[in-house]
Specification:
Blueprint: H1 6-13, H2 17-24, H3 32-44, H4 51-58, E1 63-68, H5 74-89, E2 93-98, H6 103-115, E3 120-123, H7 133-140, E4 145-148, E5 158-162, H8 164-177, E6 183-187, H9 193-208, E7 218-220, H10 226-238, E8 245-248, H11 251-264, E9 273-278, E10 291-294, H12 297-316, E11 325-328, E12 331-333
Helix pairs in contact: 1-2, 2-3, 5-12, 8-9, 10-11
Length: about 350
Amino acid sequence: MNTVTLQEIANTLGISVSTASKALKDYPDVSKKTKARVKELAKTLNYKPNPFAVNLRTKQSKTIGVIIPELVHHFFSSVIKGIINQAEKKGYLVITLQSNESYTLEKKQIQLLLDKNVDGILISLANDTAVFDHIKHVIEKKTPLVMFDKIAKVVSCSKIIINDRAAAYNATKYLIDTGCKRIAHFRGPLLPQNSIDRFLGYKKALDDFNIEYDPSLVYICNDMTFEEGEIFAEKLINDRKNVDGIFINTDLVAIGAITKFNALGVKIPEDISIIGFSNWFMSSAITPTLTTVDQPGYKMGKIAFKRLYKELNHIKNKKEFSPKIIELDTSLIVRESTKT
């Protein structure tokens, strides 16, 4: 079946293409009678606007790019759902790419999106991204870019974040308030800002409550996997550190730790209390259920797109705008892995 064009509608009704276009868009300078005739014929012929022609006129691709470190992570899948929810309402297609925590791949993906002429980019940085020239290049090209979750403080762009330091502080404080005296931390890699901030929040809580910081109780999870949770849980027991509480950087690692402690006969929370981070759906399925920091991924995705869309409109209308940092609230979800 041939695609019906606006020219055919105009020719059939004996009007100009411009008038037919205005009628479909409800311009006030077209009569109600003409609007009704055009819309009725368009409906009868199942007319659909040519998106390529529309994009050419508006100089917009109606496409945005999203780069995340890993798609399988519950938090990032929730963020993607939030982005798509809002993008679809505004008629945007979302191209989702996974950097696999690789700076090199992240750079290539940024260039790929620019080559595709996306209208804007949303990004959560890879763990080993320490140089930001590729991000600054996007901003210099006047392509709107918004960071979320894993961000770079030295880059001037809008960011959607949580207060990782405060969330980690409150989680550690809860362990202290429920009687823990010797608290370990399974932290993330050394580089990402959220990993740094969660470590600093943990350390500050210890200091505020006069618990001596012991660097030997900090275990670095470079890949933040289930297996690392198992490995460091067993190492903690073998090292005989007499730990009675652990604050863990992410739920997946925490679930690995719980699984290993269960296998070793370590009672949770009687022997060791555990708090995770992100409120992954498995945190309420593991035994015992996991106390965790609820990180609002879906909401973060929605707000990230809304901010990007606002900046797109500012650029479209040639208006100046300043980058904005939007901080979302977190909460501690208390379950069975901690004492009350």
